[in-house]
Amino acid sequence: MSYQNDVEVFMKIGSQPIQKELTLDTDEAKLYMKLISEEYKETLDAFKNNDLIELADGLTDMVWVIMGMCNSCGIQFDNVWKEVRASNMSKFVDGKVIKNDYGKIMKPKSYFKPNIKNALGLVKT
Ligand SMILES: [Mg+2]
Fold first, then answer.
1. Given CA atoms 42, 28, 63, 107 in this order, what sign does their dihedral have?
2. Ligand 1 centre and the CA of 49: distance in Å?
3. For the chain: N or C, fewer Cβ within 10 A?
4. Higher pLDDT, 115 or 123
């Protein structure tokens, strides 16, 4: 199971279509973008109010509605995550980041940008 699968089960019971093909043109995509915005605001309020319990709730709700958005658009989140993780990890050299004199983290030669098109299955091999 994954977070995305958990939300898929919820959405199926709630009669919300799960998209297997990539699309932005669904009512659920509009709905889930609204929900992401609402949950973000709740999370921000929790942080401003120094409320750790509400913050944890808000962060988890955000993950939930983000997975709902992925399901509404046909995005296989794990595939995109793996690509972004690999890109971020490529910033390390010998397990460390390289910073310039001002403390900015620099991109080493090993760095590569995430290939999101590929992760979405949009590149034919
Ligand atoms: Mg909430």
1. negative
2. 15
3. C
4. 115
Distance CA 20, CA 27 (A): 15
In the chain, residues under CATH classification 1.10.3420.10 are 1-75
Helix axis angle, 77-89 relative to 52-73, nearest 10°? Answer: 110
Residue 125 has pLDDT above 80, yes or no: no
Alpha helical stretches, state H, the chain: 3-13, 27-48, 52-73, 77-89, 116-119
pTM metric for this prediction: 0.90
Ligand 1 centroid–CA 55 distance in Å is 9
Q: What is the pLDDT of residue 113?
A: 95
- Least trusted range by pLDDT, from 45-49, 58-62, 85-89: 85-89
User: Given 1.10.3720.10, 3.40.50.1760, 1.10.3420.10, 3.40.50.300, which CATH number is that of 1-75?
Assistant: 1.10.3420.10
